[in-house]
Amino acid sequence: MFDKDNLEALELLIDTYNDTDQDTLVLIGKYYLKLDKVIRTRIDKISEKEISLIISLEDKEIHKKIKFPKTVDGASAVSTFLYSYLSEARINAPKDYPKTRLEKLIENTLNLETYITNVKTKKIISSNIIEITFEGGLENLPDLKNDAFMYFMVHKEIDHKFPKNFTIQNFRSLSSQENNPYSAAYYTIKSYRENEIDVWFVLHDHPGPLAIWADQVKEGSSVAIWGPRTVFSPPKETNNYLFIADETAQPAVLSAIENLHKNHSYTCLFETQNKSSRFKINDPNNQISWIYRDQELAGEGTELIKCIERLNLNSKNLYVFGAGEAKQISSIRKILKRQFNLGTKQMSFTGYWRKLAN
Ligand SMILES: Cc1cc2nc3c(=O)[nH]c(=O)nc-3n(C[C@H](O)[C@H](O)[C@H](O)COP(=O)(O)OP(=O)(O)OC[C@H]3O[C@@H](n4cnc5c(N)ncnc54)[C@H](O)[C@@H]3O)c2cc1C
Predict the structure, then answer these.
(1) Tell me, what CATH number does 147's domain have?
(2) Any atom of ligand 1 within 6 Å of the Cβ of 186
(3) Which residue, of 70, 202, 345, 353, has the fewest CB within 10 Å?
(4) Are residues 116 and 210 in the same domain?
């Protein structure tokens, strides 16, 4: 049986494939399962042993199961197998069959670089956010704007000097070893300048290696970062935006609203702990609503969901970007999808972190 955390991660994986990666599932149906006339493929359920699909053909609906080569223990193992079915489907597909969204994403990651950069300054933004400015080694870092995020790799010795030729491959080769001194997590580029970036680190309860590193690191220390990538991709006709973010995703939203067209409107729902964790921000038209968790813990706030249930939205030309704790974001996504009949291209929801039972 999957544990609770893995069940939630699998639920999110199924929703994402069914809503966003339909083209990949159809490709798997056509060229991995070798079925003719596949119009739509949906993941029905996933167990430790197999994945159950419902496949719409031109004239009927059929059920198919793909058995995993070995028992899986969670969402990341399932993803690995899905990628392998996708690559086998690609081998069997005609040469001119269009690349799927997921294939394009994977292709993009192959060309990403690792950069070694140094802490320049640290600044307090609120009671639970600190800004770290990194400088140097970033001459070739592209400015993707919006929610551009990087994979931050840190060493348990805070003063560790990364060798100049250290890359994500070195990190990956060590990751299965016991006593691996490196840890990593994704963080957003809040602001980009030449050879310099600002990143906002949330300091949270039960801090993991990255929050500890950010809290303790001093000027001059180095970090390895790999990326950047983005998921923010509103359809061309978008002229109205809804942003939903806890502290971890507020840098992405602040960066995205800087680039919006002047005539476009937006609303931000920013969840934070309380008044002391709210930061100062120029918001002359009151487009940012702050929602406090107060006594509730991060990832368990109920006010944000209530606020979303009360929303009165015109979904025409609307794009919704939401990120925060995975389970919370998954509930929000379901509510918005149900209430406002949003098309899949009008939404981008990402679990930025996962609440674990500590
Ligand atoms: C695309 C992307 C962009 C992101 N951008 C940012 C960013 O700009 N700033 C930022 O701070 N984070 C950001 N995150 C989230 C960040 O990667 C996670 O919070 C990460 O888990 C932190 O690692 P850690 O080592 O501190 O904690 P972990 O070792 O991962 O977790 C340790 C414990 O802390 C809990 N935990 C983790 N994060 C939080 C949190 N935020 N609040 C409360 N409890 C938490 C976990 O449930 C666990 O119990 C982003 C994530 C993604 C996927």
Answers:
(1) 2.40.30.10
(2) yes
(3) 70
(4) yes
| Cα 104 to ligand 1 centre (Å) | 26
Residue that finishes a domain, picked among 90, 108, 126 = 108
In this predicted model, what pLDDT tens digit does every residue of 312-346 receive, in sequence order? 999 999 999 999 998 899 899 889 988 888 888 89
Partners of residue 350 on adjacent β-strands: 323
CA of 65 to the centre of ligand 1 (A): 35
8 A C-beta contact, residue 200 and residue 190: yes
CA 89 / ligand 1 centre spacing (Å): 34
Q: Judge if 58 and 95 occupy the same domain.
A: yes
Q: What's the total number of domains in the chain? A: 3
Q: What's the 100 CA to ligand 1 centre distance in angstroms?
A: 29
The reply to whether ligand 1 has any atom less than 6 angstroms from the CB of 204 is yes
Per-residue model confidence (pLDDT) at position 100: 96
Mutate to test the pocket of ligand 1, among 134, 248, 277 (most ligand atoms within 8 A of CB): 248
pLDDT tier for residue 162 given thresholds of 50, 70 and 90: very high
Query: Are 244 and 348 within one domain?
Result: yes
Average pLDDT across the chain, whole number: 94
Its pTM stands at 0.90
Among residues 230, 232, 234, the alpha carbon closest in space to that of 264 is found at: 234
Q: What pLDDT does residue 178 have?
A: 82
Domain that holds residue 247: 240-353
Buried b (16+ CB within 10 A) or exposed e, 104-140: eeeeeeeeeebbbbbbeeeeebbebbbbbbbeebbee
End-to-end CA distance of the chain: 20
If asked whether residues 104 and 123 sit together in one domain, one would say no
